[in-house]
Amino acid sequence: MTYKRKNNRKYDELRPMEAKVGVIKRADGSAMFKIGGTTAIAAVYGPRELYPGHLQNPQKGVLRCNYNMLAFSGSGDRVRPGPSRRSKEISLVTENALNPALILDKFDNSVIDVFIEMTNTDAGTRCAGITAASLALADAGIPMKDLVAAVSVGKIKDALVVDLDYDEDSYEEGVDLPVAMMVNSEKITLVQMDGLIKKEEVIQAIKNVKKALKKVHKVQVNALKEKYAK
User: Fold this and answer.
1) Is the pLDDT of residue 92 over 90?
2) Quick one: which of 145, 170, 176, 191 is 20 to 30 A from 76 by CA?
3) How far is residue 131's CA from residue 17's CA, in Å, rounded to a whole number?
4) 3-state secondary structure of 66
5) How far apart, in whole angstroms, are the C-alpha atoms of residue 173 and residue 188?
6) Cα 125 to Cα 72: distance, rounded to the nearest angstrom
7) What is the 3-state composition of the chain as percent helix, strand, coil, each rounded to the nearest 5?
8) DSSP state, 15?
9) Rounded to a whole number, what is the distance in angstroms from the first to the last CA of the chain?
10) Alpha helix positions (H), 105-198
């Protein structure tokens, strides 16, 4: 049976997107990124001296990310407040996805803190968080090789689909692959997989998501232009 998406969304069609930078006045950089029913807000503080001293890197700055889902942020069960194993794992994943795009060699012994709050959730939270964090870093003036964009791709029944919503992400026999990429160079900085699919399907899924990530990147660039063109 051929899989049909809600609202007749095409297999390669993203949910509606919105982005804005400079949303938190007291942060050094900040951004909001919304895709469908998922909204991420990211704030950047630093570079500033890293304490305690034994954590410092004398050769370059350190990126430190903190991902958090608000207790009543949306789909699924209520999230228990405070750090969790999942939030710590996604924080580390976010750092790894963003680090390849950053030029931190001028910020020795310093730290750049990124705080990501998920205010609404309908799947794709780590991808939305990475996308918002990349925008916030750019807004803070942190030297970057490129923006990092992220979105999920997966398999539902017989179909490879881009940007899974909550129902698709929760599908019992489905497969979910969050992917992050430096779009101009097409350098992938994150690939994870929840579920099993064939090698050929993974290759095709990556091809499909690269096209989608260029659309996400365009939204990021337009958000920066909207602020700094004024």
Assistant:
1) yes
2) 191
3) 11
4) strand
5) 26
6) 14
7) 30, 30, 35
8) P
9) 51
10) 125-139, 166-169
Q: What is the mean pLDDT of residues 88-106?
A: 96
Q: How many residues does the chain have?
A: 230
Count of other CB atoms within 10 angstroms of residue 159: 14
CA distance linking residue 133 with residue 42, whole number of Å: 5
pLDDT tens for each residue of 52-91 = 888 888 889 999 999 998 866 565 555 565 567 888 999 9
What pLDDT does residue 196 have?
Answer: 82
Q: What own/partner pairs with CB < 8 Å and gap ≥ 24 does 70-77 have?
A: 70/117, 70/118, 70/119, 73/118, 73/119, 73/120, 73/121, 74/37, 74/38, 74/120, 74/121, 74/122, 75/37, 75/121, 75/122, 75/123, 75/166, 76/121, 76/166, 76/170
Q: Are strands 62-69 and 110-120 parallel, antiparallel or unpaired?
A: parallel
Q: Domains plus CATH for the chain?
A: 6-228 (3.30.230.70)
Determine phi and psi for 106, rounding to 5 degrees: -95, 0
Task: Give 228's pLDDT tier (boundaries 50, 70, 90).
Answer: confident
Which amino acid, residue 69? M
Q: Rounded to an integer, what distance in angstroms lies between the CA atom of residue 110 and that of residue 209?
A: 34
Burial of residue 166, with CB atoms counted within 10 A of its CB: 0-12 exposed, 13-18 middle, 19 or more buried: middle
CA atoms of 56 and 165, how far apart (whole Å): 40
Tell me the backbone φ, ψ of residue 112, rounded to 5 degrees. -115, 115
* Per-residue pLDDT tens digits for 127-158: 999 999 999 999 999 999 999 999 999 898 88
CA distances to 8, 14, 56, 80, 153 from 215, in Å: 19, 9, 37, 34, 14
